[in-house]
């Protein structure tokens, strides 16, 4: 045997040595041998039957279809028909059992978090503070034009109420569930974080240590796979201030947001309804930040100001309502800037619209009006 063929043979031996491969292959060989043996006996002892007729009769016998166009007339033919039908029923029963068992194993692994995700471009959700929070997050992802088709993976060290399995109404909305320590590199590999699109970290005020675990995990992700977007929902406002130390892309404090909205609702009743519409993809208008800087489609050297661009959009009756700008490398955004504020090539526009607006596609009309 040539040295080239040896590794291939070893690999095949290793593959067929696995029970999940060996059993189905063995059954398939037995089934094939039964069909061929039946066809030979049928062709030899039945005068009007050929080998092809025997193969056809073996198939309809083993599958219990039984069309009746060929039937055994001799003792030998009838005996092999009885034996073949028994083998067929047994083999198909075992095959069915293997398929059901594999399906059940996959379901159990998914429900208990024992699986491994091999897909790419997915969103990884870390921590399950409460099932309702996960349900709402998955609902928003379903409504998002950018993420509704993106696979989702949940990673958590434990479930609420010390549950052992993920509830069906959550499991049916995700592609994989990984139970394990989030910051453990093996857990991250099981979730295939290196090939993911983004990582979302949830937290709970009832468990303050969750912020620390999430910060550590996000730091590990950023160190090993900086191309992955990391966003933390923090229960403590001080955690948000420390995220830049770990190169974490973004974070928000649910407590600060809640308290701020509470006071604003006190000052202006009904304001929370405005926020609810702006923060959800369920309907109405949302706030967007342009994905490309204005310099990619607007000649900023022509002295175009924020006010001129606002005016151009109104005169063109285009849907976006400009409300601010986000400057490059700036953590904070500027809402409602001075109309005389000159736009720079690296600025990104903050606007209100019912759907994301393609600025590059409409650049010609906008430039003509704004210059």
Given the structure, what is the number of helices? 13
The portion of residues forming beta strands comes to 5-15%
Q: Mean of the pLDDT scores?
A: 84
CATH class of the largest domain, please?
Alpha Beta
Let me know the number of strands. 10
Total domain units: 3
Spatial strand sequence of the major β-sheet: 3-2-1-4-5-6
- Return the CATH topology of the largest domain: Rossmann fold
Short descriptors:
371 residues, 13 helices, 10 strands, alpha/beta, six-stranded parallel beta sheet, Rossmann fold, 3 domains, Helix Hairpins, four-stranded antiparallel beta sheet, 12% strand, Alpha-Beta Plaits
Structure description:
The protein has 13 helices and 10 strands. It has 371 residues and is an alpha/beta fold. It folds into 3 domains: 107 residues, Helix Hairpins (Orthogonal Bundle), CATH 1.10.287; 138 residues, Rossmann fold, CATH 3.40.50; 85 residues, Alpha-Beta Plaits. The strands form 2 sheets. Strands 3-2-1-4-5-6 form a 6-stranded parallel β-sheet. Strands 7-10-8-9 form a 4-stranded antiparallel β-sheet, with helices on one face. Strand 5, helix 9 and strand 6 form a beta-alpha-beta unit. The longest helix has 38 residues. The model has no long low-confidence stretch (mean pLDDT 84).
């Amino acid at each position: 045997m040539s040295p080239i063929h040896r590794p291939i043979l070893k690999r095949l031996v290793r593959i067929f040595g696995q029970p999940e491969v060996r059993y189905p292959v063995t059954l398939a060989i037995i089934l094939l041998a039964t069909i061929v043996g039946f066809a030979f006996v049928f062709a030899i002892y039945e005068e009007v039957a050929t080998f092809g007729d025997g193969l056809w009769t073996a198939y309809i016998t083993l599958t219990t279809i039984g069309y009746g166009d060929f039937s055994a007339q001799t003792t030998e033919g009838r005996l092999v028909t009885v034996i073949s039908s028994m083998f067929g029923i047994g083999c198909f029963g075992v095959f069915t059992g293997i398929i059901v068992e594999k399906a059940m194993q996959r379901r159990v692994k998914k429900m208990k978090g024992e699986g491994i995700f091999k897909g790419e471009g997915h969103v990884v959700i870390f921590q399950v503070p409460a099932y309702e929070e996960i349900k709402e997050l998955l609902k928003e992802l379903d409504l998002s034009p950018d993420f509704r088709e993106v696979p989702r993976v949940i990673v958590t060290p434990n479930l609420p109420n010390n549950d052992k399995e993920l509830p069906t109404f959550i499991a049916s909305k995700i592609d994989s569930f990984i139970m394990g320590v989030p910051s453990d590199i093996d857990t991250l590999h099981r979730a295939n974080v290196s090939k993911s699109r983004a990582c979302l970290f949830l937290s709970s005020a009832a468990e303050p240590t969750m912020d620390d675990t999430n910060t550590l995990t996000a730091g590990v992700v950023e160190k090993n796979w900086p191309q992955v977007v990391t966003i933390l929902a923090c229960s403590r406002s001080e955690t948000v201030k420390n995220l830049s130390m770990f190169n974490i892309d973004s974070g928000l404090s649910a407590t600060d947001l809640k308290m701020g909205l509470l006071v604003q609702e006190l000052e202006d009743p009904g304001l929370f309804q405005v926020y609810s519409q702006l923060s959800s993809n369920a309907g109405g208008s949302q706030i967007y930040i342009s994905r490309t800087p204005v310099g990619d489609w607007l000649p900023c050297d022509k002295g175009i100001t924020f006010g001129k661009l606002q005016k151009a959009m109104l005169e063109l009756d285009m849907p976006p309502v400009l409300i601010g700008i986000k400057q490059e490398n700036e953590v904070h955004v500027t809402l409602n800037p001075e109309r005389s504020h000159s736009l720079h090539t690296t600025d990104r526009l903050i606007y209100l619209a019912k759907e994301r607006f393609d600025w590059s596609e409409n650049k010609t009309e906008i430039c003509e009006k704004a210059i």
